[in-house]
Amino acid sequence: MSWHPDLAGQVLPGSSLIGDGDDGRTDTSGESHGTAIAGIIAGTGGPTPGEGMTGLAPDAKILPIRVGTGNQVSAPMVARGIVWAADHGARVINVSLGAPDPDPLLKQAVTYAMGKDAVVVASAGNEGDRGNPPMYPAAFPGVVSVSGVDESGGFWTASESGRGIVVAAPAAEIYSTNNQGRYVKADGTSYAAAYVSATVALIRSAHPDLTAGQVIHRLISTTVERNNHPDPKLGFGRIDPVAALSSIDDGERDNPLLHEPHVSVDTGSGWDSGTFGVIATSAGIALACGAAATLLWLRSRSRGSARKTPQNRPTVTATAKSPRPSPRSRTASRTSRSKRNG
Hints:
By secondary structure, this protein is α/β, with parallel strands linked by helices. It contains seven helices and eleven strands.
């Protein structure tokens, strides 16, 4: 398979759970959703300085898992993907996908992953201006549910909101890689979740002895707003990756989100999703010490805007990089300033 030049070497052979023989590295989403999320996390900047996309955690590697075709995916398959990720060492699981139905198998899978000390990060959803239904797995207790902020740092109106929101990150006008070797600009809390997952992967890499609960404590106690209790729109606040990495307050070992009230709803059906993938950071790579993230992608509100790179090669799904944005970074630097979507 060909790679986007900015993601070359970042995506490891994974698995396809749908029996098609693929290794999970093919992005079949109609909006390059997985590839864009991968670029936000693990883009390397490409072979030509000043031309490529640099992600927030570029030293991480992606371990993709396919659980559906195109935008078609079921809750049981997503649950299988999460369990597979947890069983293969994923310590950060990013789920940029959601449905208003709190499927019991999905909840069991999330609980299983958390039992293996994985941090589960999920996008809150993009229906905030169209009913604002709670989305799962984001609304399950213990999950880091991510809402979005716009370019000014204010709440992105299409983002879901509610009692289950944990943190916010950039979600509007997000520029990243696409699956044609070019670039895309799009909106969505899927991308906000990618920024949070990259931040969590960085924390786990820099501080491998911390439990998932301690990593989450760093994430929610170092936000820009420093909310003591979650706000319905921004949760504990907009993430600050640098502050989270440099904090000296590790907190308790248990997941602090299990003590926070979460919304629950028993109505609704249908997934707002694309392709599912797992993001894993290989041990021994840069600061990576077994950190990993699983990634599902939620259908974004794409704005299209593709741009050609020096090497116009098709790409795949990716995620994760270092906390120091490159001067030539076109996207990840926005997260460090916490001015973008959430």
